[in-house]
Amino acid sequence: MLSVRDLRVSFATRQGALRAVDGLSFDVGSKEVLGIVGESGSGKSVAMYSMLGLVRDSNVTISGSVKFEGREILGLSDREMQSVRGGDIGMIFQDPMTALTPVYTVGWQIVEQIRAHTDMTKQQARERAIGLLGEVGIPDPKSRVDHYPHEFSGGMRQRVVIAMALSCNPKLLIADEPTTALDVTTQAQILDLMLKMQESYGSSIVIITHDMGVIAEMAHRVVVMYAGRPAEIGPEVDVVRYPRHPYTWGLLGAVPRVDSKNRRLVTIPGTSVSPLDVPEGCAFGPRCEHRMEICDERPVLHGPGDHLDACWLSDAQRLAIRSARSVAGGAS
Amino acid sequence: MSDDVLLRATDIVKSFTSRGKKLGARSVATAVNGVSLEVRRGETLGIVGESGCGKSTLARCLVQLLPVTSGTVEFNGATLTGLSRRQMRPHRREMQLVFQDPYASLNPRRTVGDIVADPMRINKVGTEAEIGERVRELFATVGLDPASLRRYPHEFSGGQRQRIGIARSLSLNPSLVVADEPVSALDVSVQAQVLNLMADLQETFKLTYLFIAHDLGVVRHVSDRVGVMYLGEIVELGEAEVLYEKPLHPYTEALLSVVPELNDTDAPRRERILISGDVPDPSDRPTGCAFHPRCPVATAVCRTDKPAFVELRTGRFVACHHPRNLDA
Ligand SMILES: Nc1ncnc2c1ncn2[C@@H]1O[C@H](COP(=O)(O)OP(=O)(O)OP(=O)(O)O)[C@@H](O)[C@H]1O
Ligand SMILES: Nc1ncnc2c1ncn2[C@@H]1O[C@H](COP(=O)(O)OP(=O)(O)OP(=O)(O)O)[C@@H](O)[C@H]1O
Ligand SMILES: [Mg+2]
Ligand SMILES: [Mg+2]
Description:
Chain A is an alpha/beta fold.
């Protein structure tokens, strides 16, 4: 469905080259939910937006390959890209107002979107808009279709955006922190809705989040990003239960849980690396407790089967570290 | 007031009056609607609830940054409500608020080192050298490079600014720290550092925390006892452990059931209870129990009678006509 190879995005800034995405490769299968997780500034959004031609900064350099259904979409013209975005690829953003215009009714906006990508008449598109609003759980869609975005609550607006993203039966949905701004009960409603829609529309989803819990609920596979690079990629169950990269250990151990007693949270020493100053070797090296000499060389993604990581530790070393930790009482 | 209670709030009400959409119409939003609670010395009382339920308003009422509409706040045996600014002054230093949004509270013209040092200078807690040393120490413990002391707030990321705010509020070693979403804007790894730091400081200086957050995991992690807020009211309060294991209020139960979990053990997942709809507007409060329009177990009585907030089991308070998990 989607195949990304060695995606690199860098911005020329006054302080030098800022490598926001630095060698990202992953695949998204048909009907698969892929989660991309990483801390703020790790390049999650830039990676997605650059693929979709949404990074128009004149200082940007993008390289690599992004194939959607076998067709190269990196470097498509604006016009070609516009027919892909909102058509075969739908998008959901953290702030629903990114996708909605305050001055038009939500119905008008969905109708425009549908008409830009199909040859439906205005009336047909309006019928479809009402149907979609009903599907995403907006009560009384027949009258709500003529309301303006500000007349909806945050959760309702995100539902409208989902309706809009689904309006052209996309094969791929890209959702950037779709529930980060929402409360937990609303988040549950929206995640539930996304999964239901994914089932009935048979689309694939790429969901970007910094919340490992959301990943665990939604994703089949996970990409863990650090400093613009993939640290670990694998099936969700494997990454959450048997994380391989020291950064993932830290990420998982740092999460305060609702389902377990107080324990000391695992912390990663130091602060996040500046994207202007990512080391040549392992990006996580300066903060890693298990750093070795070889870590000055950049590790490549490797691993058993489909669970890959970019770390120089051997399996034996990892095993030793993890068992030492569980003896000491650490959770991960 | 018994000795182990540091702060007691009794029936706090805070209403905001705003002009309605129609000419001349005024609407009253009751952001806090009759909250009573005690914070014990040395404990962490967590307050959890969804956006707009009144957590920040309650916090500001408790530390007297907002005048209450009615009710009383006692602190260290003294009644604070109704005190003048001057009479409040000796208590101020004892209760520090960590803000949800530190942007507004950091003076852009002062270096971050000065920002953290100022409360100590004003209160003359040491020589300039001692204060400087403490500032560097605070910087290091909140995860900031002490070499950046001379830089200005705009040179820091949001997360770093949040840490500067935390460092400042901890600088005077207050007895009560009211922390309003202190880690909500931080990445999980930084959040863990700050939570561990706050735990260390609590132990070292015997601090009492009132810790407000919408993140149920964070609140469980830090709290000895937890209060759950809904639409301006505390609907359940109890020991963190039991409240999370066997919630009494259907709202608590639903809230806990939908938190995304890591599923990294074989333990079965809680059954998800999706509650429909949105939180009602505080200016248009439902009759009876405020939660009844969204409650999966509501009956006729819930629509008409407001349930009292009672101690149903020792130390376990709830306001519900049909409490859950009672037999367990
Ligand atoms: N137009 C731009 N010019 C220069 N740098 C940029 C630009 N857009 C993004 N960046 C930088 O690229 C890096 C990656 O940003 P990105 O928004 O992808 O992070 P993210 O992982 O989505 O973080 P968050 O979780 O905060 O959304 C950051 O260091 C950011 O400052
Ligand atoms: N100064 C004010 N004037 C009018 N209404 C207010 C004012 N401050 C708060 N409110 C209202 O009171 C209610 C409670 O707000 P509050 O900020 O205390 O909620 P909260 O629980 O802290 O929410 P959040 O999690 O979003 O911070 C909201 O409906 C809010 O709109
Ligand atoms: Mg982003
Ligand atoms: Mg608040």
